[in-house]
Amino acid sequence: MRTEDPLLGVVVRLDMDDCPIGTIVKTPTGRIGIVTKHCGAQSRKDMFQRVVIQFKKPRGDTVTLQPHLLTIIKRSEATNDGE
């Protein structure tokens, strides 16, 4: 652990700007998918932004999640995962 790290102890939460369409992400369950759509707040009582993620297998399977729940991964990691 480096003590000169400026983000030491800071929790970084992703938002929609961090997950543009086409970004490869990992969900909390470990599945890997691609961001295909951004959704804004759905009502006055629901102010959360969400992204739609599409998975390769099964074909057409999608999920809508809040961006802070996702982990952005590199293309090389996605191809090695086998999903």
Stretches where pLDDT falls below 50 for ≥5 residues? none
Shape: flat
Number of helices, counting only DSSP H or I runs of 4 residues or more = 1
Assigned CATH class: Mainly Beta
Number of domains: 1
Q: Determine the strand fraction and express it as a percent band.
A: 25-35%
Give the N-to-C terminal Cα separation: 32 Å
* Biggest sheet, spatial arrangement of strands: 4-3-2-1-5
What composes the largest sheet?
Answer: 5 strands, antiparallel
Say what the CATH topology is: SH3 type barrels
Secondary-structure element pattern, one letter each: EEEEEH
What does this structure look like?
The protein has 83 residues and is mainly beta. It has one domain (16-74): SH3 type barrels, CATH 2.30.30. The protein is 8% helix and 28% strand. The chain contains 1 helix and 5 strands. It has one helix spanning 75-81, and strands at 24-26, 32-39, 50-55, 62-65, 71-72. The protein has a 5-stranded antiparallel sheet. It is flat, with a radius of gyration of 15 Å. The protein starts with 23 loop residues before the first strand and ends with a helix. The mean pLDDT is 81.
